[in-house]
Amino acid sequence: MKRLGREIVRMSLTSLGVHKLRTFLTVSGITIGVFSVIGVMTAVSAVRGSIETGLSFLGANIFQFAKYPNIQIGGMDEAELAKRRDITLVQAQRYAKLMEGTADVICMKAFYGRTGGDSFQGAQVVYQGRKTPPGMTYVGTNEYFLTANQYAIDLGRNFTAADVELARPVVIIGHDIAKKLFPSENPLDKKIRVNGHVYMVIGTFVSKGTGFGGDQDDILTVPITRFFTDNGIQGYTVNIATQAPSATTYNDVMEKGVTAMRIVRGLRPTDADDFALYSNDSLLAAFGKIADSVRAGAFVISAIALLAAGVGIMNIMLVSVTERTKEIGVRKSLGARKAHILAQFLIEAVAISLMGGVAGILLGVAAGDALALVLKASIVFPWGWAAAGIVVCSAIGVGFGFYPAWRAAALDPIEALRYE
């Protein structure tokens, strides 16, 4: 029985090798369908970790107010958002006063060059004859930046309340900036120039690497009061991050925070919020919706492609049955049973489908991980989707190959031998 089974498999694969071009074209249909879904799923899986790391830039139990939403899906368009009033430093300071006793950590941030929801222009940092590339992230903030944004001090110290209150010209620089400007010397107490303004380096950040496809080490922070002194207040808006004392008080603190924010913004009870509120959970949920939409689109495209490929397999197998009618008659006259003929043609159909599936999986993983590398994300192999691809391809081979196989098995040997 085992020998007979091996013989049937050998004959099936030999038959596929006889018509190499036809087999290749049929396999290509399956490959395209599987490639489209595996490529997308691999890319989404690979980038997801990087994006979630980048989105989880807020510390634990922290929510943030801003003029613009961090991720926008539907809702207000850019023009409507731009009409919102900037959140000023005075409003942020009043908010902090109202939240005293409710929240211990209130971080204020203003970004240099931010003129719209997505528009950003960074800064260039200079030390003696060395320069960073333009586009460094230049932030005005306070002593709570480390807690609210999950940074840590490598060398030196953090800002103090006095640094912020007195608007001292001091700066903390990211790992990339320190490496570029101070390759072989201690950066502490050195004076650097940022867009024409001079600051003394009091600390450096521990490297955070990349997140959301971007570099988190090309950052420099100055006291927010100094930031506005040097750059003016026109065109800048302040982001306010608030940390609840614990997870159990998070919702209560957020409600009080929204109330305090509405008060400092001068909103009446009937007015809608003119600010965005987000947290790590809301950002991850927003990305989840995007990822789900991408997956759904890829699934629909792949289903259509695989359906067309399945029809192609059925067509090719019917042609093969017609071409090999006499061969089938000879085999039946020599004692081959209907089950043997059925198995042979089913194996051919499944083999074509699996070859396309494996090729599609390999190409899809390669393409998806190539995109992940471009976005500086870790490469992955989607084992679950790959296994699902193999199962689906096997089902396609059986489903679309069964009728041609049954038709071959049902041929009358006498009539088959007469066929020309």
What structural class do helix, strand and pairing data support? Answer: alpha+beta
Annotation field: number of helices: 14
- Percent of residues in β-strands: 5-15%
**Rg calc:** 32 Å
How many extended strands?
Answer: 14
Mind summarizing the main beta sheet? Answer: 12 strands, mixed
Average pLDDT: 81
Number of domains: 2
Model regions low in confidence, pLDDT < 50 over at least 5 residues: 115-119
Task: Tell the overall outline.
Answer: elongated
Order of helices and strands: HHEHHEEEEHEHEHEEEEEHEHEHHHHH
Fraction of residues in H or I helices = 55-70%
Cα distance spanning the termini: 32 Å
Describe this structure in words.
The chain is an alpha+beta fold and 420 residues long. The chain has two domains: 2-53 and 286-418, no CATH class; 85-274, no CATH class. It has helices at 2-18, 20-55, 78-82, 89-98, 145-149, 161-165, 175-181, 224-231, 250-264, 280-323, 325-333, 338-374, 383-409, 413-418, and strands at 62-66, 105-111, 125-127, 130-131, 137-141, 153-156, 170-173, 191-194, 197-205, 210-211, 214-215, 219-223, 239-243, 276-279. Strands 1, 2, 3, 4, 5, 6, 7, 8, 9, 12, 13 and 14 form a twelve-stranded mixed beta sheet that branches. It has a two-stranded antiparallel ribbon with strand order 10-11. A hairpin with a 2-residue loop joins strand 10 and strand 11 (214-215). 39% of the residues are buried.
